[in-house]
Amino acid sequence: MKKISTSKIASIVMVAFVLTMAIAPVGSAAWVNPQCTGTGLPCQTSITDFIMNIINIALTVAGLIAVLFLIIGGFRYITSAGNEETAENAKKIIINAIIGIVIIILSFVIVRVISEALVRGNT
Hints:
single chain; 123 residues; mainly alpha; 3 helices; 79% helix; 0% strand; elongated; membrane
């Protein structure tokens, strides 16, 4: 079994921290309604708004992770230095990241279409 070096663990923790800090404003913007005064607690008007906010946050996080894997795959491909095995692994990472991005975009569109149909159907 391969041992993971402490520098790799530190870089993974740092990337996770940076992603968390980048996503934090998106999450807080989804929960706070500027029309709510006083407590600053979330005041969603309906359960559908709440569910849509959670789905949007989840899709945003998944999209950021897919883009991160695309960057990692590109970096590994560039730094493969002629090693065919490393280049093939990097190509697989890039292809899987692109497939993930396409799936995330399609799921976002599907969720939007279904939510619009359900909202129009309720009124």
